């Protein structure tokens, strides 16, 4: 008989990171369940995604967080629950925690974080509760004694890199650009698919039980100056740079109403405050690329190559 | 955390015995999966049944034996697989066995038998392969080394009892009836819901691992003479009896084309040959009501009471 693999339930399976989790789980040979709302079948993109999941061997369960019996029934089938809910729904994860407690079979819960560490970020006064809600979910998980791993992938590669950190732009600049702060602070960008591969690698790994897993692979920890230099080398042209000071950035964040200033807030967090990298990983944490040296991931440089083809 | 319960997959979940298995599994607190064809949703009765399963906490998986990836994906989520396919589909269980081997996670397989013991019946020359197919499935299970329990419930209560063993009749006779043989041979009748309750009781029980479980509860092992006597007492009237000899019954079986003679074949097996009771349960077997004395079951007498109300 084949080795028994943990059964993985992905909640929020049709979302940007959820779909990658389903694929990575199937790729790793896990029996995989995807919870989808009935309404997903009326959405052409989502229904085609669900069909592709089913063809690849996933089991689609119709249900939602609003329908607790359906959520509980799904959780009862899972050894591992991965929440990939959008950040706006962070607090709805309280229902998942409740179901995990009631089901009693879940060996690992991965709550929806997939960003910076909510216990480390230094912008809690300006993010309108974005990280506070994620921290609250951590505390609830810990109080309930639910085995867990928190995944801090920092930024998704598709966020900010396609514009070279120029809010509002769709493609990287070819003439001039803004650099926030002095351009030396390092942020971290990881491709969604790689986040999923690293996440799935942790679920049966005792080394990551009840830990924070930071994803900081070499080649993905990068300052704005380095990013611009890579890009200039690729397009063989020097760009005109305007430096935006901390004070100017804070003034813009203050002057522009929320949520239109969200990108600026996250830029302030990552490139001024250094929220992705200002701290060393302590005993409560592990680093993904150290734990899983065989995982092939896309570096920022490689990702910039794909932008060059499109630009 | 609550005790972890085996996850049960029922294949053939909308059928007569399958629906009882789903209910009994849910009643016993097992996470329960029901495999249903897409087409079941177009059938008003089946779709309403599936809806009631989902409301009671089962997870409905769309799939079928014809769609191997869907079958495999479902089996991978299960610790226990219960096949409740109709007898005509007995050999299609080879696909289930294949999926169980590939999935590698199934701790118990209950193939679809729910009749007399196919290794004990003495009518293999006249049943058109009915029991041979079930015996073939047993041999395949054993060759593949799949942990199993075979359930021999003999006859369902709803088979033959409502007519007092008068083929073709819809209600029990109130004037005269036929008795096959001398009326002293004992057969066994068990309510479908009770078969399911006993079956679900075995799935995490090491005493039934790789055994045949016979369901022969006191009050359900009965001869035609006893059955008629019970009925006569209930209706306070003596019936006129015609005794049909072995030879006469065999002649009828021979003269009537298959499958119209099926009831007579099963009557011959049970009430002439004594296929339900002619043997003692040996070391390869266990008896359900001895193992699970707390299971409340309906006796033949109690069942006859319900017929009286209708008659």
TrEMBL record, chains A, B:
<keyword id="KW-0560">Oxidoreductase</keyword>
<dbReference type="InterPro" id="IPR036291">
    <property type="entry name" value="NAD(P)-bd_dom_sf"/>
</dbReference>
<dbReference type="Pfam" id="PF05368">
    <property type="entry name" value="NmrA"/>
</dbReference>
<feature type="domain" description="NmrA-like">
    <location>
        <begin position="4"/>
        <end position="304"/>
    </location>
</feature>
<dbReference type="InterPro" id="IPR045312">
    <property type="entry name" value="PCBER-like"/>
</dbReference>
<dbReference type="InterPro" id="IPR008030">
    <property type="entry name" value="NmrA-like"/>
</dbReference>
<protein>
    <submittedName>
        <fullName>Isoflavone reductase-like protein</fullName>
    </submittedName>
</protein>
<dbReference type="InterPro" id="IPR050608">
    <property type="entry name" value="NmrA-type/Isoflavone_red_sf"/>
</dbReference>
<keyword id="KW-0521">NADP</keyword>
<dbReference type="GO" id="GO:0016491">
    <property type="term" value="F:oxidoreductase activity"/>
</dbReference>
